From TrEMBL:
Residues 127-259 form the Dihydrodipicolinate reductase C-terminal domain. The lineage of its organism: Bacteria, Bacillati, Bacillota, Bacilli, Lactobacillales. GO terms for molecular function: 4-hydroxy-tetrahydrodipicolinate reductase; NAD binding; NADP binding; oxidoreductase activity, acting on CH or CH2 groups, NAD or NADP as acceptor. One of its GO terms (cellular component) is cytosol. NCBIfam families: dapB (TIGR00036). CDD domains: DHDPR_N. SUPFAM superfamilies: Glyceraldehyde-3-phosphate dehydrogenase-like, C-terminal domain (SSF55347), NAD(P)-binding Rossmann-fold domains (SSF51735). InterPro entries: DapB_C, DapB_N, DapB_N_CS, DHDPR_bac, NAD(P)-bd_dom_sf. This is 4-hydroxy-tetrahydrodipicolinate reductase. The gene is dapB.
Length: 259
């Protein structure tokens, strides 16, 4: 039986990569797209001619799709995922910007509806491994800062990957105090702060997605870095998610948890 997929944000760079992925996956078919600004011309966006285009959630009928791929915006993603779960559509979400509280609410809703899904701060294998390695290193190097670099059009800062990295480091990091008498002569020059871990966000043209985790120790340093040079690299993770989320009965955070 063919599995039906709705792609939310199908007009964007990542959305188009997702459309191309599903178009080339045996046993899967894009049956719909969601975008508030799209024209009613599916083939213009490389969707199958039979695919339906919707401008808002209220237009989407019941029993339309089995999977919901979301590459939209931080403002839209929470309501999108909530809608998908309530309508028993399994979400595969690459949009970042939701709060911890919003993610927690969606997990509770997924358990109530018994619908599996995945929210991934990053679908790149190199990013998943960076987070795993950084979490392990944090046991030995409590002094750490994160630099994330993305394209100039990215809507949220810090990136979901950088924030997820900081959370994973904090889980393993020994209790640690930063310098209490540090003074910023230029406001926010030291970056954002997550439990004492500084995060610095860079936004420049021509970048795609890059992250460095810098650890400092007595007489030595460790740098872990990953680079995504092409958005197509994220599709391996999306493919894995589409193949595995129907085995879940609740919403999971992080691609590493289904590998």
């Amino acid at each position: 039986m063919t599995k039906k997929v709705l792609v939310a944000g199908f007009m964007g760079a990542m959305g188009q990569k997702a459309v191309n992925l599903v178009n080339n996956m045996p046993g899967f078919e894009v049956v719909a797209g969601l975008s508030p600004i799209a024209e009613d011309n599916p083939e213009q966006y490389h969707l199958p001619a039979s695919a339906k285009i919707f401008k808002n959630l209220t237009e989407i009928p019941d029993n339309l799709a089995d999977f919901w791929i979301d590459f939209t915006t931080p403002k839209a993603v929470y309501e999108n995922v909530k809608f998908a779960l309530q309508h028993h559509i399994r979400p595969v979400v690459g949009t970042t910007g939701m709060s911890d509280e919003q993610e927690a609410e969606l997990i509770v809703l997924s358990k109530k509806e018994k619908v599996g899904g995945l929210i991934a701060p990053n679908f790149g294998m190199s990013a998943v491994l960076l987070m795993k390695f950084a979490k392990e290193a944090a046991k030995y190097f409590p002094d750490v800062e994160i630099i994330e670099m993305h394209h100039a059009d990215k809507k949220d800062a810090p990136s979901g990957t950088a924030l997820a990295t900081a959370k994973m480091i904090a889980e393993n990091r020994p209790e640690h105090q930063t310098a209490p008498d540090e003074v910023e002569t230029l406001k926010n020059v030291r970056g954002g702060d997550y439990q004492g871990i500084k995060i610095h966000s860079v936004r420049l043209p021509c970048y795609i997605a890059h992250e460095q985790v810098l650890f400092g120790g007595s007489g030595e340093a460790l740098t872990i870095r990953q680079d995504s040079f092409d958005r197509g690299s994220f599709m391996n993770g999306v493919k894995v998610a589409l193949e595995k989320v129907d085995q879940l009965d609740e919403l999971v955070i992080g691609l590493e948890n289904i590998l």
